[in-house]
Amino acid sequence: MAEDAKEGGAELVFHPMDQFIVKPLFGDGPVGLFTVTNVTFWMALTVLAIFALLVLGTSGRSTIPTRIQSIAELAYGFIRKMVEDVAGKDALPYFPYIMTLFMFIVFSNFLGLIPGSFTTTSHIAVTAVMAMAVFLAVTILGFVKNGAGFLGVFWISSAPLVLRPVLALIEVISYFVRPVSHSIRLAGNMMAGHAVIKVFAAFAPMVLISTGIGLVVTPLSIIAITAIYALEVLVSFIQAYVFTILTCVYLKDALHPHH
Amino acid sequence: MEGDVVQMGAYIGAGLACTGMGGAAVGVGHVVGNFLSGALRNPSAAGGQTATMFIGIAFSEALGIFSFLVALLLMFAV
Amino acid sequence: MASETHDAAGTASACVDAGGGAIGMPQLCGEWMGNQVFWLVITLIVIFFILSRIALPRIAAVLSERQGTITNDLAAAEDLKVKAQEAEEAYNKALADARAEAQNIVAATKAEIKAELDVATAKADAEIAAKAAEGEKAIAEIRANALVSVKDVAKDTAKELVSAMGGKADARSITSAVTAKLKG
Fold it and tell me: Which of B2, B27, C131, C184 is most buried (CB neighbours < 10 A)?
């Protein structure tokens, strides 16, 4: 809602989407391909945070880990176990790529929770690139590893013969919807949560406009912001987890196309 | 005047699209509830199936996100 | 709606209005996508190299080293346990030995004491027997003496009695009569 709700002299200002605007970090010029923008800034912060956790945190290489080192080891073990359990042992060579995706998403999501920050993963352009990369990599890998046998992923040999062409059609469609749902799930979740917080934040100064309604609305919206924020903390992690585990599932399809 | 009608239609459509999110909520609740009832029957097997539950949640939740997206598109992009 | 409210004069972008607010969804603004994709690709490449060159090998090394340490420690603990068990066995054995020896000593001492006791008893018995024999001998002697005296007394008494009654008895017949009487 770009429109402002006017009521008397003061007004509630609804700009839930303004937090997603990309703007140049220096100056006021147009956003070109190589312009240093707030996207650059927050992605650089993500890199720094990952560097701090996984490189500086483990620089002690101690057998008895410090706190930060045990977090780093926890993340490592978590993703490694996920790859091994979901995609199988022969997927372990692709573990660094999956770890890269997971670390980037989880840190972007959590940095986006800082009030006033910019959430890079709430942009469909960003998640779509990652989802398409996963989709293309998995498809190419499937054909390279299995040749034409990769098409067996659409031909469900355990189903009755009559149903197989129908199922094959459904499987083909769902296969090509994968990158769409994969990217929109992450971006949509992040965008939705942040937009909802912003809408509630717009209701919070209601007490300045009308004291009667405001005494009810303002505390309610502040409580709602807190609650949604807590939910968002959970969602930030779960969406990173889901993105990663779906990547593992797709990878499993590429490595073992016959279910 | 014509533009107002289009805008009205877009807003009504956005509101209607949001009902789809309720369906996603029902679906996610169903997945988790069934997982929980199964897990309480056989707690030893529950640990290995948590990942499957999350995949199921992700799939059913994605459709709710789609309806949310349709609502946003109707409000901001049409 | 987007283009209707767009004020081209006051802004450098088609997606932002004059007041700096978003027009439509910023996510769908085409002119920002190239920039985002460019920086995303750079970010992902940087993260990938940080992870695959430095972080992951290091964490893997730390984890395997810890696994090795744990395995070694477990083996050492197993060794120590075996040693402790051996020590306990040795202790038990020593204890049993000591007990057996103590029992031996007790038995030997008992035997010794018994032997001494036996010897002493035998000696005492012998002494007692000797004393008894001596006593019997003395008694026999006394008895014999007594018999003789009894004979003498009887002879004298008989002689006196006979003479008191007015008879005259010769010594030989009195003796034989007394002897016969004594025997009877």
Answer: B27
Strand A5-6 relative to strand A11-12, pairing: antiparallel
| C28 with B77: Cβ contact below 8 A | yes
Number of domains in chain B: 1
Q: Which residue range forms the structural domain that includes residue B22?
A: 2-77
DSSP codes, A98-129? HHHHHHHHHHHHHHHTSTT---GGGSHHHHHH
| Distance in Å, alpha carbon of C17 to nearest chain A alpha carbon | 10
Question: Rounded CA gap, A133 and A127, in Å?
Answer: 10
C-alpha to C-alpha distances, C163 to A63, A118, C79, nearest whole angstrom: 140, 172, 121
Answer yes or no: is the ipTM higher than 0.90.
no
Which residues of chain C are within 8 Å of residue B72 when distances are taken between CB atoms?
25
Contact C28 B7 (CB under 8 A): no
* Residue B17, domain CATH: 1.20.20.10
CB C164 within 8 A of CB C149: no
* B56, closest residue in chain A (CA to CA): A242
Q: Give chain A positions within 8 Å (CB) of C47.
A: 46-47, 50, 100, 103-104
Structure confidence by residue, pLDDT tens digits, C102-159: 999 999 999 999 999 999 999 999 999 999 999 989 988 888 888 888 778 887 888 7
